[in-house]
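Troubleshooting: if your tokenizer reports a length mismatch, compare your output against this known-good record of 140 residues.
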Amino acid sequence: MNPMEFVWGFLIFAIAYFISAWILTGISRRQIRSSFRGVTPRDIEQALAEAGVFKGWVRVDGEGHINQRLGMLRGGRKGRPVMSFAIEEENGEVVLQIWLSQWVATLGAIEVVHTAQFLLKRRKAFDAAAALEVARTTTV
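Known-good structure output:
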């Protein structure tokens, strides 16, 4: 392989990596809010726990009712993002909000692995809450 081909390949990879990192960072930093009927805040918290939303993350202090830092093997290093959950009743509905309340960005982007893990956990949380709502409000 020609050395210039290697350099061009690496340059294209680096550009694609940083563009995807910036896009994923923008998506991750958005606070998502959804309302559910026929459930209580405790029900939603239990559904999230049963779905495994809290596994692999370490509880920490933060802005939400539940705050977690990506833990895994090193126990939640300070540079890792903090995922915050707010579960509260509002006008007869339970509102679930999930957002990144703390993170460290390098060149304006959070590490791709961390954003991907956050996005997967956030999707799993909303899916679990929606499934609970459907189970509670659907009559067979």
